[in-house]
Design a protein that fits this description.
119 residues, 3 helices, 2 strands, 63% helix, 3% strand
């Protein structure tokens, strides 16, 4: 069997093939990075929706308790309900994989904590 040093044209062909493989792998890595970014954005959106729904549910339960007079509301619940009503739409929320995905921004924010709660 010939060694690549003995046949320069085969060596060049072998290098071209290796370069094609490397290029294909790099393209595949880029596609996977883009897909990971898309999935991270979806996770951030779902996390945000979940947090909003949980918050809405807690406000609803507290409001029901207040309206029914079943249990006295814990201190600050009414003011928290009023504060939450003013902040229905969170401006930012989630940090996933070191990136923030709120409104297309990549500005770091505290994980899962809305700005108005961090003050």
């Amino acid at each position: 069997m010939e060694s690549p040093a003995e046949n320069p044209s085969k060596a060049a062909e072998y290098l071209k093939e290796l370069n094609k493989i490397i290029e294909t792998q790099q393209e595949l890595l880029e596609k996977q990075k883009r897909r990971i970014d898309e999935l991270e954005q979806q996770v951030a959106k779902l996390y945000h929706e979940n947090a909003c729904l949980q918050d809405e549910h807690h406000r609803h339960l507290a409001t029901c308790r207040l309206q029914q007079g079943v249990l006295p509301a814990p201190p600050g619940v009414l003011s928290a309900i009023q504060e939450n009503a003013r902040h229905e739409k969170f401006s930012d929320l989630v940090l996933i994989g070191g990136k923030s995905y709120i409104n297309g921004s990549r500005t770091p924010v505290a994980f899962g904590i809305p700005k108005w709660l961090r003050k």
